[in-house]
Amino acid sequence: MTAINRVLATTDLSAPARHAAERAARLAAEIGAQLDLIHVIGRTPLDKLRQLVTPQSAEVEQRVVELATTEVEELAETLRLHHGLSAGVKVVSGPLLGEIAAQAEAHDAGLIVLGARGASFMRHALLGSTAERLVSRASRPMLVVKQPAHESYRSLLVPVDFSVSSLRALALARSVAPRARLVLLHAFEVPFEGRLQFAGVDESTIHHYRIAARQEAVRQMHALREAAGLPLHEVQFKVLHGDAMQHILEQEQEEDCDLIVMGKHGESLLEDLMLGSVTRHVLSQSQADVLVSV
After folding, report:
1. Are 141 and 70 in contact (CB under 8 A)?
2. What is the largest distance, in Å, between two alpha-carbon atoms of the chain?
3. Residue 143: strand, helix, or coil
4. How many CB atoms lie within 10 A of CB 16?
């Protein structure tokens, strides 16, 4: 299990971001990690302010920074009262994604936490959420928070494809929620199943292939569990035939999971280049929080 010593929570001071900060604080307190809060003031609004070239521009800009700093410090104090830990506070200006990545490196953060929605919802809906854009370029694990942090994570859904990425996801899951229930999910399909059906291969033969594919997946599930060092009684297996995206969202509800833990990278180069179509879909469609390993 890889220890997380520092948690970096990003906030735009919106309500969803405050949920994320609360979750980050709860989690940091539970695992004994340092918490840092960062707020990024977008460069574009400041540039527009500077372009006004009025005598008050510099003074107003400084006031914007001071006000943001005060709000983040007030949030840090609220978290201290709720969770009993002191958070570092940092307010910077610049490109959002670049500054978050830079601060994560500067603080050597083991986990970045942010809300699934921010203040600029319409812009994010058109261009892709900050969470999706940041995850696509992240070199550190990220927790995307969707729900208020009323309690510790109780049940984790971990979709696996038996790649090295699956091992990393399991290690991260245990680091973040060491006492939570683990549900390992693998969705399988027979190679070229659609083509076999199109070619007229009888359903009994295809069914036989499905049975064999499922048996192999179960074998690999046990091998993955052993490689991850997880006791059998701590893990529940789900091996299901069909579309992975659909099964993940269904099992999230059926198993009442409050956190989905996924690898950023899949088995194929195409998935790596596109963040992973399954990961991206879950980020946008799930109700539970999503933890992405790298």
Report:
1. no
2. 81
3. strand
4. 20
- Same-fold call for 6-145 versus 155-293: yes
Coil, strand or helix at 215: helix
Distance CA 5, CA 110 (A): 6
State the alpha helices, DSSP H only, in 1-154. 15-31, 43-51, 57-83, 96-107, 121-127, 130-137
DSSP 258-277: SEEEEES--SSHHHHHTS-H
Beta bridge partners of 8: 36, 112
Q: What are phi and psi of 182, to 5 degrees?
A: -110, 125
Dihedrals phi, psi of 115, to nearest 5 degrees: -80, 155
Q: pLDDT of 130-172, one tens digit each? A: 677 777 777 899 999 999 999 999 999 999 999 888 999 999 9
C-alpha 151/C-alpha 33 separation (Å) is 18
Domain at 155-293, CATH from 3.40.640.10, 3.40.50.300, 3.40.50.620, 3.40.50.720: 3.40.50.620
pLDDT digit string, tens, across residues 69-122: 999 999 999 999 999 999 999 999 888 888 888 999 999 999 999 988 765 533
For residue 159, which of 270, 269, 288 has the smallest C-alpha distance? 288
Give the whole-angstrom CA distance, residue 212 versus residue 220: 12
